[in-house]
Amino acid sequence: MVVACVVLACALGVASPPWGFVGHEMAARVAAAALPDAMPAFFRDAGPQLVHLNPEPDRWRVWEQREMDQAFAYDHYVDLENLPDGALAAPDRYVYLAMLYEAGLEKPERDAGFLPFRIVELYQRLVSGWRRWRAEEDSDRREWIEERIVNDAGILGHYVTDASQPHHTTIHFNGWDAETPNPEGYTLDREFHARFERFFVEAHVARDDVVAHANAERPRSVAGSARDAVVAHIREAHAEVETLYRLDRDVGFDPEQPAHPAATNFAAARIAAGADMLASLWWSAWLESASPVERGGEDR
Question: Of 213, 219, 229, whose CA–CA distance to 272 is shortest?
């Protein structure tokens, strides 16, 4: 059934199943444990809910509910090789999309993806929520805002974790793209995506493995520069694409065989990178919300 779903996703031109619930939940659990005491208590206490919410966007991916599925399908990845110069500097996803059309991509949303914009959009929504929370004096309304903050932070976590998986940053998202040069003999296996990030992780990666690779220090602040940090996070994962493929070729990511330490370490390190970035964005959104902002936008 899983293989059939992966094949269907490829045929329809949508992203393949991501980290799997186990990888997503591990990343969120490690991120939540890293939060400083200076974060408001309600947010630190929401760790189990943040863990539950991290896989949530994958729960929306039901092909029979096409309108919902297609609305979010392209937010899970970005194919960096297909982007024209300057595309990631676009001020929003719509200017970005226009740049993709101008570059001649056949189906820009499918051929490029929106992952960095989805992350930044949710980060900014979280900053907005924290600003309202700081200013709200009514206790009931403050609790409602808290619910909004936790929900937005949990959903943000999904995409940040996706971005730590090299497959989500490349045209080689599920086996090496057969139309591009492959001098090192990387796998063309169209089950590689799920085999690595779901079945291998579920079989061989434990939370302690992820913790061992995570940043043990206080989350770094990227307040005021979150967008640059998000792009750097994605580029860092993309730099590991060929490492991922070499490991698969040389030692394998077989969920049914004993794992090579290099394979386990690689998967754990990538999940830890997602956890570190997520803790940083949660912490930074809280810090950034202390600064006032001018309201903009046009009324419609």
Answer: 213
CA distance 275 to 202: 17
**Residue 97 near residue 127, CB atoms below 8 Å:** no
Percent of the chain's residues with pLDDT above 70: 91
Question: String of b and e for 201-235 (b: at least 16 CB within 10 Å)?
Answer: bebbbebebbbebbbeeebebbbeebbebbbebbe
pLDDT computed for residue 17 by the predictor: 45
Using alpha carbons only, give the angle 233, 7, 100 rounded to the nearest 5 degrees: 45
Sequence-separated (6 or more) residues with CB below 8 Å from residue 121: 93
- Of residues 281 and 300, which shows the higher confidence score? 281
With 0-12 / 13-18 / 19 or more C-beta atoms within 10 angstroms meaning exposed / middle / buried, residue 36 is: exposed
Nearest partner of 233 among 155, 154, 165, 176, judged by Cα: 165
- The pLDDT tens digits for 25-82 are 999 999 999 999 999 999 999 999 999 999 999 999 888 888 988 889 999 999 999 9
Provide the whole-model pTM: 0.91
Instruction: Give the residue among 142, 156, 141, 196 at the shortest CA–CA distance from 19.
Output: 196
CB atoms within 10 A of CB 237: 25
Q: Over the stretch 218-228, which tens digit does the pLDDT of each residue have? A: 899 999 999 99
Q: Name all domains of the chain by residue range, CATH numbers in brackets.
A: 2-78+113-288 (1.10.575)
